[in-house]
Amino acid sequence: MDQRMNKEKVKDLASQLYAAIAELLHKAAALLKEHKAPIAECLVKEIAKPAKDSVTEIVRSGDLVSYCAEEGVRILGEGKFLVFDSFPGNERTKYCLTSKIPLGVVLAIPPFNYPVNLAVSKIAPAIIAGNSLVLKPNSAGFPKGLTSCITGKGSEIGDFLTMHPGVNCISFTGGDTGVAISKKAGMVPLQMELGGKDACIVLEDADLDLVAANIIKGGFSYSGQRCTAVKVVLAMESIADSLVEKVNAKVAKLTVGPPEENCDITPVVTESSANFIEGLVMHAKKKGATFCQEYKRDGNLIWPLLLDNIRPDMRIAWEPVLPVIRINTVEEGIHHCNASNFGLQGCVFTRDSNKAILISDAMESGTIQINSAPARGPDHFPFQGLKDSGIGSQGVTNSINLMTKVKTTVINLP
Ligand code: G3P
User: Fold this and answer.
1) Burial letters for 97-107: b for 16+ Cβ neighbours within 10 Å, e otherwise?
2) Which of the chain's termini has less CB crowding within 10 Å, N or C?
3) Catalytic residues
4) Which atom of ligand 1 is nearest to the CA of 113?
């Protein structure tokens, strides 16, 4: 092999790969932000996301891509150097060099509710880590073949993609399908976010105005169609009346209608979702739940509804309907939270920070927010569900690390 050519090739790769990709990512981020209006319009039309939230999603995505480019060049530029004699019984005769190298091809499957943000949260770390990716049309001048888009029904091309021997990592956000993918996927790293049943525990000493504002934000934004939506409120009996009254006053102010008019509550994404929600509401009605508002539906548009006096045997825990379960002890709340198969996020409201931390430790969920609604962002925070909520931590840094493998060279001295 031509020694000189080889050296040049290595030098070329080492000096250009991460820096060059970072530059492309910065360009992509700028393009996203520059074209935020037309891209947001697609979200409004295709998934009925309110106009202001659609713009927020695009801007947040641009920021994520830029952050990822910067974080990538930092962490991928670092390797490790280990010496042999730091392990008992060895002399200094071996030197170990490690660095992170790409996995190969990352298959990214984002969900409907964040078509841009949850796409770029997979694309950007995969690309900066030196992988190629199957998902998306080329943009911002990425070299041909670096990113690809394959569209089709999951039932027709899903297995082909997820079981393809050329795929070296799968990053998926969605529902139960993720469990099936995990079972079929080969020995490749998996990043799966499969939803949650996020609980909101409210103690007697909580600031109820703050709680009510966060329940509205957490339970009803994008009509509750977020994996991190508050799905159940567990309120201490002594403050439940007052909390329900405050939340009801805010529910009454939510606007309901088309996404183009920036309404708070917009139609849910499919008719089957609307039918599913209606089924849960009717089940709760039959079981004796207290309806704080009249149930109202027009096509896929379902008016926000707070259901009080829900008991654990009622199936309701879905959007944009929010159940309140009254509890008499903190342990009861923790027990309800942990009885769920899911464990994505949760939140606890109290002015007692020691208690809050103990409750956070006891709740079997990936992230617990103290005195705020569950949320994935900011996008560099770790994000991982426990139990059926998923596998493989997200967040920019964790994603870059997951999408690389460690390569080691050991130098043996004579
Ligand atoms: O539903 C997707 C999930 O990742 C939620 O994200 O930003 O609404 O907390 P976010």
Assistant:
1) eeebebbebbb
2) C
3) 193, 227
4) 1
Tens digits of residue pLDDT in 234-276: 999 999 999 999 999 999 999 999 999 999 999 999 999 999 9
**CA-nearest residue, atom 6 of ligand 1:** 376
Residue 270 near residue 223, CB atoms below 8 Å: no
What sign does the CA torsion over 308, 312, 316, 317 have? positive
- DSSP strands (E only) in 110-197: 132-134, 147-148, 169-173, 190-193
pTM: 0.89
DSSP letter at 11 equals: H
Quote the ligand 1 centre to 366 CA distance (angstroms).
Answer: 13
Choose among 146, 149, 165: nearest CA to 102: 146
Distance 341 CA to ligand 1 centre (A): 19
d(CA 336, CA 14): 52
Lowest mean pLDDT: which of 109-123, 140-154, 307-321, 381-395? Answer: 140-154
Gap from CA of 41 to ligand 1 centroid (Å): 20
* Ligand 1 interacting residues, C-beta cut-off 6 A: 113-114, 193, 226-228, 375-377
* Residue to mutate (ligand 1; options 376, 389, 393; most atoms within 8 A of CB): 376
CA 67 – ligand 1 centroid, Å: 18
Residue listed under structure tokens 């006053």: 249
Q: What is the 3-state secondary structure (H, E, C) of 210-245?
A: HHHHHHHHHHHHHHHCCCCCEEEEEEEHHHHHHHHH
